[in-house]
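Bit of a strange request maybe. I'm writing a small parser for C-alpha cell strings and I need a real example to test against, not something I typed by hand. Could someone generate the C-alpha cells for this chain?
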Amino acid sequence: MSIWTLILLLLLLIIINIISCLVSLPFTIYGIIEVIKIEKIIKKIKSREELNYGKKIFINNK
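Reply from user aminoacidic:
Good idea to test on real output. This should exercise your parser:
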C-alpha cells in the first residue's frame, strides 16, 4: 500500500467518525433534556413531601 491510500483510509475513518457523532448528538441532547425535566419533577415532589411533613408535625404539636 502506498502512503496515499493510507492517508485516504485515515480520512475516510475520520469522516465516518464525525458522521456517527453527528447522528448520535440529537439523541444525547434529548436525553439530557429529559433528565433535567425528571430532576425538576423530583424536586417538586420532594418539596411537597417536605411541606406535608411539616404540616403533620404542626398538627401533631397542637
